[in-house]
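Aim 2 progress. For Lysophospholipase L1-like esterase, the working sequence is reproduced below.
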Amino acid sequence: MTKICTEACKSKRNGVVILMSDNKSINAMQLDSNMQIETNEKSLYWHSPLKPPFQIAGFGWLQGEGRYRRLPEKPAWELPQAVNLLANCTSGGQIRFTTDAISFSVKVKLKGAADMYHMPATGQCGFDCYLGGPGEQMYYGTTKYDHQLAEYESVLFANLNRETRDITLNFPLYQGVDELWIGLDPAAQLFPPPVYESKKKVIVYGTSITQGACASRPGMSYTNILSRRFNIEFLNLGFSGSGKGEPELAHLLAEIEDPACLILDYEANVSTELLQQTLPNFIAIYRERHRTTPILVISRITHAKERFEAQMAKDRADRKQIAKRTVEERRERNDANIYFCDGSHLLGEEAQECTVDGSHPTDLGFLRMADGLTPILQQILGQTKENSFDPQSTKDDLGNI
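Predicted structure tokens for this construct:
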């Protein structure tokens, strides 16, 4: 057997026989120069993004606490333990600034290393970089580093032309960040980023899907995609397996000032009975403080196994009807600013090809979700007069998705 394998592993290159070892692991990063980690060989000046003119978005309590955390460290309402831990994940966080730098690197200290079996480390623990102003942001690159490490330095770009650029840096989706430093060439000038068109914030509360599982890189979560289409701050409050519509979270979200819209997308974390108990109460608590803020309730996206397990499909359909009825009942009581979106349509045709495990979207799935939600948010936020979404609709699927 050894002789057969050895003969099979011979190949010719330029007429020379090369013996390929069959008992060593394959390291593509060593074989492909395009996959190798770039190191910085130039001196950089390291900046704290917590100081002007950098602007940090996506952390509702950052100004008071100075931590990259999605909920307050000591909230007035007691948090479920899992939610409290997941609040340290930095999903939805962004650093925005304008610079004429020709070189840009980051130094990062994470709370832990990559450890998820179904999500790329670049999405869990990496940063990605977009160049361009509002509505014109284009992806440039993602941090490259040894994913076994919790501390790393990574080059995002080097030796570009000296010209002014608007930069958005997206934080990791499924890991915490203790420290972050921005490295620019010493001659670089820094300026504030373009201003948002409003001080209001879009708040998205939900599940692991909301948090970003399993995007390949941070910019591909659906809330980050939407943030590139609307010149307004988004707060991602998705808690993996743990956002369950608790009243404490409703009270806490109601403390966020200047909400432009509240999106509730937590159905996938709860049973039919628990959704029936929590959704009307969650909305009622939020309405005590924000009586006219638009609220969008999204039913969950489909699961691939529903094609084979009828009970799964029935349970999702039952929960969709609960969400739809909850919205309709509030509208009947003159709550004109609450809407329903049938999430079963968001992944479109061949939805089963849009997830990594039947449940959590790939980049394709998240892009389809964002495409479906964009016209709805345009109407809710008053940014279009198109008829793709009628807020006064009383049809079965409010939103016509």
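Residues 201-380 form a domain with the Rossmann fold fold (CATH 3.40.50.1110). This observation will guide construct design in the next reporting period.
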